[in-house]
Amino acid sequence: FSSGSVVLNVTDDNDLSPVVITEILADVPPGAAGDANSDGDTDSGDDEFVEILNKSGASLDISNWSLHDGAEQRHIFPEGTILPEGCSIVVFGGGFVDNLGGSSIFQVVSTIRLGLNNAGDTVSIYDALGELVESVTYGAEGGNDQSLLRDPDSPGGFEPHRSVAEAGGSARKLKRKQISALHGTLQTPCE
Q1: Which pairing describes strands 49-54 and 19-25: parallel, antiparallel, or unpaired?
Q2: What is the dihedral of CA 13, 15, 16, 20, to 10 degrees?
Q3: Is residue 92 a contact partner of residue 46, using CB atoms and an 8 Å limit?
Q4: pLDDT for residue 179
Q5: Are strands 88-92 and 104-108 parallel, antiparallel or unpaired?
Q6: Residues facing residue 60 across a β-bridge
Q7: Which site from 5, 26, 39, 55 is most exposed, i.e. has the minimal number of CB atoms within 10 Å?
Q8: Is 149 helix (H, G, I), strand (E, B) or coil?
Q9: pLDDT, tens digit, for every residue of 77-96?
Q10: Closest to 161 measured CA to CA, from 181, 138, 183
Q11: Residue 151 · residue 174 · CB < 8 Å
Q12: What is the DSSP letter of 95?
């Protein structure tokens, strides 16, 4: 046995994260198409959103977890926020989410706004202990009047919403592909 030193570089690519950010809308489209929260009013702050998918394989208590942008904490998930396996939660910048249906859970930020920058930002999720769970950085592509969708087949990870539709796909098909790639099943509805 001889003595010496070894350097070990470990890269954590967050494969063990129980959640993944699947969609971000920083630049709200004008007109009715921009009313993402379906409250009857298109608003550049209220209709911004971040969608987070539970890929853990079990229900996940995200009470007191937090959502941050590059500047500050924007949302704390309230006590009792349970995200069923394979389901997503969408956090809007404001407005009312009572008119939304479908297979997601919806919340409005616990602060004044999401404040996502159209020219680029970092969106991060921290658990109740303050440990980083998931983080995504986007650039100028966030400022094109459309959301960015995570695409498991894309080398960049995200694709502009319209490019999915132009390629003959749909947001719903991409969501199913995301869930299949990240989790393996689609649980619907999420309640």
Answers
A1: antiparallel
A2: 100
A3: yes
A4: 46
A5: parallel
A6: 83
A7: 5
A8: strand
A9: 999 999 999 899 999 999 99
A10: 138
A11: yes
A12: S
